[in-house]
Structures are given as C-alpha cells and as structure tokens.
Write a structure and sequence with these properties.
Radius of gyration: 24 Å
Mean pLDDT: 91
Shape: globular
Strand order of the largest sheet: 1-2
Order of helices and strands: HHHEEHHHHHHHHHHHHHHHHHHHHHHH
Number of strands: 2
Low-confidence stretches: 537-546
Structural class: mainly alpha
Length: 546
C-alpha cells in the first residue's frame, strides 16, 4: 500500500510539473525576481510610494524641498502629489511591511541605496503584478478557444517579447493598468458568453480600479465596452436581443463605474477642494504662475501631428521599434482577417482604436512620450494588448499563412525578445543622458545594444558613450553605469556589506539558472506536444455560449 501511495504521489507531482499553469506561473515568478533592481525605477513611483507612506504615518505626501519640481498646492496650502491614488493603494501593504523590515537591527549598518523598504516594495509588487497578469492572459486566451500550446506561447510572448518585461523591472503604473484592463476584459467576455452577472460586476470593478490609477484609463473602459458590443454584433445578436443585452450591461456595470468615479472625485476634493477638474489642469495653472511665459494652454501646448506621429516614426520612441510584435499583429491581420473568429476581430478593433485614442489624447501634451521611460510609456499598455496576441494567432492560422510569413513571425519574435532583454540591462535614463551629446534623432535600441557591448568590454569611455551631463548627478551616474539588477547595483553603490552582496549575487544566479531550466522544460513540452497530450484542457471556464 505504501508503494502504491508513493507511486500515486509521484504521478500527481509529474502532472503538476507538466501543468502549463504551473510552468507559466513559475516562469513569471522567476522572471520577475531576476529582473528586479531593488529600486522603484522612476521618480514618479517614488512619489506615489511617499503618498502611500503618508496614509499611515505622519510624513507629508510631498516634502517641501521637492517643490517646485514636484507637487501642487492644495487645500490649506499643503503640497500634494498630482497622481491618482491607485498605485499608492497597490503599494500600501508592501510599504507597511517594508518600513518595519527597514527598522530591523540587521539593517542598522546596511546603508541606504537601495533601501530595504524599496526592495520589499519593488519585489513584492512587481512579482505579484507580473504573475497575475500572465495568469489572466492565459485565462483570456483560453476563453478565446486557443489551444494550450497557443496560450502558453502567447503569455511567453507577453512576458519576453513586449515592453511588459521592462515595466516588470521599472515599476510605473503600466503593468498594473494592463492587469486591470485584461481582468476587466476577461470577466466581461465571460458575461457575454454565459450571462453571469457576478462576472460582469467583477470586470467592471477591475476597470473601475483603473480609474483610480489614471483617469485616462476611462479609454480602456470604453474599449472593453466596445469589445462587448462588437462581439454581440459579430455573433448575430441584433435588434431587441442586442438592446436587452446592452441594457443589462449598463444596469450592472454603470453603477460600479459611478462608485469608482465618485471615489476618484472624493480624492480630488480631499486634496484640492474641487470636483470637476483634473490634476493636469491644476498642474498647468500652477506652472503658469511660476513661469508666466508658458502658453495659456500648457501642458497641452504641443503640435498635435508631432505628438501623434511621434510614437510611430520617432526612433527614440517608435512603438514598432520597442514592440516589434505589433508588426506581426498587423501582418497576420492583413492576411487572414476573414478567418478570424468574432471575438478576435472585436478584440483587435477595440484595442487598435484604444491605441489610436491614447496617441490622440497625448499628442499635444508637452511631454507626449513620458521622456524618462523606455519607449512611449503612455501608449505602451495598449501596444502590449495588441501585440502579444499575434503569436497565438500565428500558431492558429499557420496553415493559411505559409512558411514565409511564419519565418517572418519567428524573426520578429526573436527581435522583440532581444529588444526586451536589452531594455532591462541598464537603467533607462542612460540613453537619455547620452542623447544630450549625440543629439536627435537617435536610434535608442541600437544605442542600448552598443552600450551593452561597450560595458561588457570596458569601452564606454573609449567609444564616447559617457559625457559630463551623466556625471553631474552622482546618484544617477552610479545607477546608470552598472547592470540594473539588485546584486550588481549593491556592489556598484558600495554601501551594503560584502556578505550581503555575495549572498544576493548567489541567489540571483540561482534564480537565473532556475529560470533557464524552466524555460527549457516549457520548450520541450511545446515541441513534443506534452501539454496537449497529458494536461487536461485547463480553460478556467467551461461554458456554453448564450
């Protein structure tokens, strides 16, 4: 009996290790661990974390010495952050834990760069967001009836072939917005297929949380709503049936949106004593008071066409360079559009329009690309949504597309993976500093590859890749002249004890080795059809169309 029990346990363990859900979860977890630097990656996130800290401590949301570079005067003359509350709430639990970890006696002589608090926040928040995003996308691809192999390939494309990887390391709002938008989409589509009202409310709640993160995600809400209507239309729901489904959608989703909209307005009133404006309007007003030479329509005083075309053709920010998979989506769509299922056509139309809407909204913004970022961070989430599905579509329609197109698709995927891996090697301001000397236009991707080779060979100075601007800020100079991973950053800064550096480096290399082993196992399962043969159909919802 004991031998039988051991054999049964071994069989169950083997099934677990061959489970696509287990393997993609482990891949996402290890990837997010390996790429962390321990820093928050951007001053924007640092300010949002300080806002979270002010919720439960006596510290202010904005320190007086940060003004006028940051902060807006609000009620009672107090300085407030101009961002939404969403990401601050996301980081709040980790901030509480990290603050107490930072006070432990073991860290008394540790140093302060990066501080244990930021390490706890960046690791816990980024890993959680990454893993959940991968699982949600796997679920959505299952709802779209892609095979298990196609779903696995799709989430790997998201993780390694889009800017999702970069923002897993650099904790801006992008990946959190991506997670909430895709969660909202998945639960909305479940409602379309099953009529489940709880699913609709959950999906609306996810999109409502997005509104607290960045108010412009109202565009994501509209895109998902358009997707719902298009799916109903493409599947033959017309007339009174269509009107009744739309009415049901409005009945259950609209109150949820109104609740989150009211929460956003309440936070706006709490800070600035107003209900019917946004922080951009207040920011523009305060900046014009500080600098009367600014135009009356600042910060939306730029050229529309320059800001609209910039994300397409500017070599510093082009979505086609930073997310090459979007070219594959365009190619596959152009060739086999008529063969797409209704939900795929609805998906591509809705989120293609979302991408155009974001480009249009930020076109006149004075900093339309969010300069200190890898690519155009304002549109990158929409680009990721449109781009990652290209790989499952290529695999589904491989017989129609032929060998040439498949070869192009493989080439684009490899190029995209190279770009994304390069994106996490150094802190993103490196090329921005270099462009002060090199000028514009600069092909940032090529410059990053050149930096990687030059740094590995110790040729940064000889190749003219350092300049005086980089050295004016000692803190920045230290951070952009080392690999942007925690053990290398600790060693470069030199404030952590040697044993800490050695330990983190050993753990980091062990994590990297584990990731490569897991990826090799995933590749073996994909090439041998193990997932399709041995794993049950793990589509998380077994449902009938209504």
């Amino acid at each position: 009996m004991a031998r039988v029990s051991i054999v049964a346990m071994m069989v169950r363990l083997r099934r677990l290790f061959l489970s696509p859900v287990f393997l993609i979860t482990l891949t996402a977890f290890l990837t997010a661990c390996v790429v962390q630097s321990g820093e928050l990656g951007t001053s924007d996130t640092t300010h949002r974390l300080q806002t979270a800290h002010s919720f439960w401590t006596s510290q202010p949301p904005v320190f007086p010495n940060e003004y006028p570079e940051f902060g807006i005067h609000g009620r009672g003359g107090k300085l407030y952050s101009w961002y939404g509350i969403g990401q601050s709430l996301l980081m709040l639990p980790a901030d509480i834990v990290g603050t107490y970890v930072n006070r432990l006696p073991i860290f008394k002589d540790y140093g302060d760069d990066p501080v244990p608090r930021s390490i706890v926040v960046s690791y816990s928040t980024n890993i959680l967001t990454c893993v959940l995003s991968v699982l949600v996308c796997y679920r959505l691809l299952g709802q779209f009836d892609f095979s298990v192999d196609q779903r696995v390939a799709g989430v790997l494309a998201l993780l390694f072939c889009t800017t999702f990887l970069h923002y897993t390391q650099n904790m801006m709002e992008n990946n959190y917005i991506f997670l909430l938008t895709m969660t909202g989409l998945a639960f909305h589509y479940k409602w379309v297929r099953t009529g489940s009202q709880p699913a609709l409310c959950i999906g609306a709640g996810a999109l409502g949380l997005n509104l607290l993160t960045r108010l412009t995600t109202g565009l994501d809400l509209l895109a998902v709503s358009l997707f719902v209507v298009l799916v109903l239309w493409f599947t033959g729901t017309r007339g009174s049936n269509l009107r009744s489904r739309v009415a049901e959608y409005v009945k259950f989703a609209l109150p949820v949106y109104l609740v989150f909209g009211a929460l956003d307005r309440a936070y706006q009133y709490y800070r600035f004593g107003s209900l019917f404006n946004t922080y951009l309007e207040l920011y523009g007003r305060e900046q014009r008071m500080l600098d009367p030479t600014l135009p009356a329509n600042f910060p939306f005083d730029g050229s529309f066409w320059a800001g609209f075309v910039g994300p397409l053709i500017r070599p510093e920010k082009s979505i086609f360079l930073f997310d090459p998979l979007i070219l594959l989506t365009v190619l596959v769509s152009a060739l086999v559009w008529r063969s797409f299922r209704p939900e795929i056509r609805a998906y591509l139309i809705a989120f293609g329009l979302l991408l155009i809407a974001y480009m249009s909204f930020y076109a006149k913004y004075y900093d339309w690309a969010g300069d200190f970022a890898w690519g155009d961070r304002y549109v990158s989430t929409a680009v990721q949504i449109v781009a990652f599905i290209s790989v499952p579509l290529l695999m589904r329609h491989v017989a129609q597309l032929g060998k040439v197109v498949c070869g192009i698709g493989v080439g684009l995927a490899m190029a995209a993976a190279l770009v994304q891996i390069a994106s996490v090697m150094f802190w993103c301001p490196l090329e921005i500093y270099q462009m002060e000397t090199l000028g514009h236009p600069t092909f940032v991707i090529w410059l990053r590859l050149k930096n990687i080779v030059a740094f590995a060979w110790g040729k940064m100075d000889q190749w003219g890749l350092t300049n005086e601007a980089m050295q004016e800020d000692p803190w920045d100079y230290v951070h952009i002249t080392t690999y942007d991973f925690l053990p290398f950053l600790l060693a470069r800064v030199g404030r952590a004890p040697d044993w800490v550096v050695r330990l983190t480096k050993a753990v980091w290399f062990a994590g990297l080795a584990s990731l490569l082993i897991v990826l090799a196992q995933v590749r073996r399962c994909l090439t041998r059809g193990v997932f399709e043969r041995s794993a049950p159909d793990l589509n998380p919802i077994a449902e009938q169309r209504v």
